Amino acid sequence: MVKRTGPTNNILKGLIIDLKRASSKNKANIWKRLASDLERPTRIRRAVNLYKIDKTLKDGEIAVIPGKILSIGSLTKKREVSSYQVSESALKKIQESGSKFIPLKELIEKNPKGSKVRIIG
After folding, report:
1. What is the pTM of this model?
2. Span 59-86, average pLDDT
3. Counting beta carbons within 10 angstroms of the beta carbon of residue 18, is it exposed (0 to 12), middle (13 to 18) or buried (19 or more)?
């Protein structure tokens, strides 16, 4: 039987620890859920295109993707998006549309309670 090791990337390990701490400190289960999604193997993590973010996100919400943002489609409104990874072309399209990309670590500090955050994917 193979022993489960978890992520080997030190940056990702630190992010998962920060998410778990924020969850217990602020009693926000959304960060705990995000940490458990990021602990999964890379091949199972979610990859979401911009058109899906634009279609599912409501006004005033922040989109969080526990995986990678890909560049198919575009954002028609100003949105705030956050993820562990983002492709270069997707980041360029996000900035061109007037939307804002927030790294996960900054989002935890900016919104510790996780209010108006939606996990997509």
Report:
1. 0.88
2. 94
3. middle
- Reference 17, options 4, 5, 32, 27; nearest CA is 32
The C-alpha atoms of residue 15 and residue 77 are separated, in whole angstroms, by 29
Query: Which of 83, 55, 82 lies closest to 68 in space, CA to CA?
Result: 83
Beta strands 100-101 and 62-70, pairing class: unpaired
Please, where are the H alpha helices in the chain? Answer: 10-26, 29-38, 50-56, 88-96, 104-110
d(CA 111, CA 102): 11
Residues in the chain, total: 121
Mean residue pLDDT of the chain comes to: 92
10-119: what CATH class? alpha beta
Read off the tokens for 89: 């072309």
In angstroms, the CA 67 to CA 39 distance is: 10
Q: Which two tokens stand for residue 65?
A: 């993707």
Output 2 or 46, whichever has higher pLDDT.
46
